[in-house]
Structures are given as C-alpha cells and as structure tokens.
Design brief:
Layout: H1 2-10, H2 13-17, H3 29-41, H4 46-58, H5 62-75, H6 80-93, H7 96-107, H8 114-127, H9 130-143, H10 150-155, H11 165-173, H12 177-188, E1 195-196, H13 209-224, H14 226-231, E2 240-243, H15 250-260, E3 264-268, H16 270-278, H17 282-294, E4 298-302, H18 306-309, H19 319-336, E5 341-347, E6 365-368, H20 374-385, H21 395-400, H22 407-428, H23 436-445, H24 450-463, H25 471-476
Parallel strand pairs: 2-5, 2-6, 3-4, 4-5
Antiparallel strand pairs: 1-3
Helix pairs in contact: 1-4, 3-4, 4-5, 4-6, 5-6, 6-7, 6-8, 7-8, 7-24, 8-9, 17-19, 20-22, 22-23
The structure holds adenosine-5'-diphosphate and magnesium ion.
Length: 481
C-alpha cells in the first residue's frame, strides 16, 4: 500500500498539480501510520507531507492535516503546493477567510497559479459570488486545462459547457437563443439610452461629504470653469470610480451629480452591457459615447461597471475582449474630446475590474463610498421621512441604533414602518403619524447588509492592495497599514 502511495508521489508534476484536489482510493491506517513516521523522519520532504495530508483529508482528520501542513510550511514557507494543501484543509473545515487569505495572493496577477484559481473559484462560489467564481474558474482552465473540475463546474452551473476551447468560444460568440429576437432589434437600431434630467442634487444625498467634495473638484469645477483650468494649463479629464458596499448610495449619488450641475444623465446599466455582449455589438458602445457627446453637458454613468470590465483574461477569446478594448479607447476618446462629458462609474466589486480602467485619463480617481456614519444616517433618515406623516421622530436615537445599516437598509426601515402604520390605519379607519417607536421596531426587522461586503473586501484590502488602492477599506476597518 505504502509503496503505491510513494509511487504516486514520485510521479512528479502531475502528483503535485493535483495536491489537495484529488483523492486516493482505499486509504488505511497502516498507510497513514507509515506516512506519519516517514514525515516524522523527514519533515522537509514535501511530497511525503503532501501525501499524508491527502490521506488525512480523506479520513476527515482535518485538525491533524492542518497541523502537518502548517509545520511543513515552516520548513518551506514559499511552497505553493503546501500553501494550497493548507488552503484546502481550511476550506474543508469551513474556515473560508483563512483559505481565502492564502489563495488570493496565489490566484491574482499574471503569474497566478491555476490550481489556486480553482480554489479561489470554490471560495467565491461559497460566498455566493457566482459570476466571480465562473470567471475565475474559466481563466484557470484556460491557463491549464488539467485543473478542470467537473464537480465545481456543476456547482457553478456550467457543467454542460465542457472545457473544450471551441465550446467555450461558441458560448459567447453566438447570441443565446432566447435573447435572439430581442437581439435582432437591438443590433439593427443602435442602443439608445434614456436621457434623464434628475431632480435630485447633492442635498438629496445624506452624508458623503468627502465624496461630494471630490466630485466637485474633479469633475464639476472643471466643467463650470473650463476657461480657468485652461488658463492655468491644468489638464481636465478622467473619470471617477465609486466603490463600496451595495446600497450605500453610489447610483443615487451619480444621479444627484447630474442634478447638481443641471445636466443630462445617461446611465449604462447592467442590462445594456448584457445586450452589448449578446450582440457583440461594439457599435452600441460607440453609440453610447456618441450620444453622451451630443447631450453635453452630461453625466455618463456606468453602473456596475465590473460587468463590463471583468478581468480581460477571462474574455480572451470572447466577444467581450473587443468590447473592453473598445470601451477603453472610447474612454480615451472622451478625454481627447471630453468637454462637458463627466464620466462616473460604480461597482461593488472593484477587484473584478481590469486595472486598465484605472489608468490616467480613465477612471483614475477611485473613491470609497462607505456605509453612512451616525450623522449621515440621521440625514438619510430625515430625507427618507420627508413628505411622510410623522410625529416628533427622534432620528438621533434611531441613527444611534442602526450602525452598519446602508442607506438602502434605512430606506427599508422607513418603508417597513410606513407599511405597518398603513395597515393599522386601514384597520382602525384613522390615519396615524409614524413615531420613533414604530421606526425602532421596524429597524429590528431589517438586518444591516454591509458587514457581509466587508468580510470579502477585507481580504482584498489586506492581500491585493496594490498601490494602496484599498487603504480606505483598511482605515474604515481600523486595520493598521
Ligand atoms: N447617502 C444617501 N442619501 C440618501 N439616500 C440614500 C443614500 N444612500 C442610499 N440611499 C437610498 O438607498 C437607495 C439605494 O442606494 P443606491 O444608490 O442604489 O446604492 P448603490 O448604488 O451603492 O448600491 C437609494 O435609491 C436611496 O434611496
Ligand atoms: Mg447601484
């Protein structure tokens, strides 16, 4: 038995590449014992250690596996294989953040390890980020098809895709049938966005003083004082990328920016991006930018821009590649001819955005939109209660009790209280104003949603913080840097 194990170990690259991912048959205690003693004698022998960990995992002895992996890593701190073993053990124990911390550093960048990427995809899948998981998995298989994993594929709902290049390619190049009719229309006429004139302005946005200031300096003043900027030889251009947990007012703020400067507002949403993808229609993208230039002054807003700019490697052989490249060149074109076009973009997952988007002249200002602090929560609550029948509501008390609530959560609290009150009014036949107690009760029913985002963001900020791009997250979490 042991001889067989050692043979597998000895098969070199393949055995190594499958570390932690495949399972041996018929493990038994004798084999474990033999490996244990072997590892005791030669703790620096990575192949032996790896094999022992595999067997331990198979026997669900995770704690011992973890201990062995960690000890071995002290001998070989840089060993990718051992790190992957440890991540695998963590993953199986449900210690996802530990696993993520290891895997992410190995799974990022152009030298990313495909095995680490597959593990990363598993972790993403478990956190519910299916899109990220699929993208990461596909890129891994693209780099090395030997890491393909059919179990994971079925978890990701891409089992029928297979891993053949040609199949993957056709998946993206042809319009999905059910969209085909819709597409035919879309590709004939160019995509035309609804041009709005939002009534909201910065006063409709609670808190966010820093973000508002930054938008003023970076895009509003240059628009209003173009001559002055020119006189001082100050280059204008480039856009702002807003990122942060969902529901904290990114989209709201973008609309309010248009209202603030009294300009048109063109929003490219996720469904527009999808139709561009399905139609592989770069013409549409060009039309969008053209429309923006014709509507100036105008705020051109790319909502959930990560849908458009997800890691380009993943789209290498798809229509998406052209779309992204064209998007980037249109952005550069806006810079050349940007008078009156203010570019804003928002994303909840900046780490999925291709770094090319952040080059000078593109979205070169990246701003963190945090959850509202206490005074911002007071403002948001006041805004949300405006025009509703209320009775001496103590927003300070409510704001104090709603730490970690996003703006959208606070809106939900108010909606919930309104609903309950309406219910009561209908029953009693007498309308009654909303009071503090109603709102406090409603707040108990609405869970804050921002914490979850931070648990993912934290890892990116800690382990993929190139150029300090996520320093704001670290500061927010009070993590020293
Ligand atoms: N700072 C804020 N001031 C006022 N309302 C807010 C604020 N943040 C969020 N909201 C409310 O929550 C809703 C959802 O916010 P949204 O802008 O869609 O969040 P995001 O784009 O960051 O996911 C908004 O439509 C608005 O009603
Ligand atoms: Mg939004």
């Amino acid at each position: 038995m042991v001889v067989v194990q050692v043979n597998v170990v000895g098969s070199g690259r393949n055995a190594e590449r499958n570390a932690g991912l495949s399972v041996l048959t018929n493990p038994n205690d004798a084999a474990i014992e033999a490996l244990r003693s072997a590892v005791n004698v030669a703790p620096e022998n990575q192949a032996l250690v790896q094999q022992l960990i595999k067997l331990l995992i198979e026997l669900l002895k995770y704690e011992e596996a973890e201990h062995i992996a960690r000890t071995a890593l002290q001998h070989h701190p840089g060993s990718v294989v051992l790190q992957l073993c440890l991540a695998d053990v963590y993953f199986r124990q449900g210690k996802d953040s530990h696993a993520l911390a290891i895997v992410e550093t190995l799974a990022l960048g152009k030298d990313a390890d495909p095995r680490a990427m597959v593990m990363h995809a598993r972790l993403l899948q478990r956190t519910g980020d299916l899109r990220g998981a699929v993208a990461t998995y596909k890129e891994a298989v693209d780099r090395d098809d030997e890491v393909a994993d059919s179990d994971l594929e079925s978890l990701l709902g891409i089992a029928d895709l297979g891993t053949q290049d040609s199949e993957l390619e056709s998946d993206f190049d042809e319009p999905v049938p059910e969209f085909a009719d819709h597409m035919a229309e879309e590709t004939e006429d160019e995509l035309s966005l609804l041009s709005e004139r939002p009534e909201e302005n910065f006063e409709s946005v609670g808190g966010m003083q820093n973000v508002k200031d930054e938008i003023r300096v970076k895009i509003i003043y240059p628009l209003q004082h173009a001559d002055m900027y020119a006189a001082y030889g100050k280059k204008v251009g480039g856009g702002i990328l807003l990122y942060g947990p969902p529901g904290c007012g990114k989209t709201h703020l973008a609309r309010a920016t248009a209202g603030e400067v009294n300009s048109a507002f063109l929003s490219v949403g996720i469904s527009d991006v999808l139709s561009m993808w399905l139609g592989s229609s770069e013409k549409n993208l060009n039309a969008v930018f053209q429309q923006a230039r014709e509507s100036r002054p105008c705020v051109l807003f790319f909502d959930e821009v990560d849908a458009l700019g997800a890691s380009r490697a993943d789209m290498k052989r798809t229509a998406g590649r052209h779309l992204i490249n064209q998007f980037l060149s249109e952005l550069d074109g806006v810079e050349a001819d940007n008078e009156g076009v203010l570019c804003l973009a928002a994303t909840n997952t900046p780490w999925h955005l291709d770094t090319a988007f952040r080059r000078p002249g593109r979205f070169d200002r990246v701003i963190f939109v945090p959850p509202p602090d206490e005074s911002a929560r007071q403002e948001i609550l006041k805004l949300q209660l405006q025009g509703k029948p209320t009775d001496s509501v103590d927003v300070r008390k409510l704001a104090a009790k709603t730490a970690d609530y996003s703006g959208a959560d606070l809106k939900a609290v108010v909606d919930c209280a309104v609903e309950a009150k309406l219910h009561e009014a209908v029953k009693l036949g007498i309308p009654k104003p909303i009071n503090t107690k109603d709102l406090l009760k409603a707040a108990k029913q609405v869970r804050p949603t921002t914490r979850e985002w931070f648990s993912a963001a934290r890892n990116h900020a800690l382990y993929a913080n190139e150029g300090g791009i996520y320093d704001d997250i670290l500061d927010y979490l009070k993590i020293k840097r």
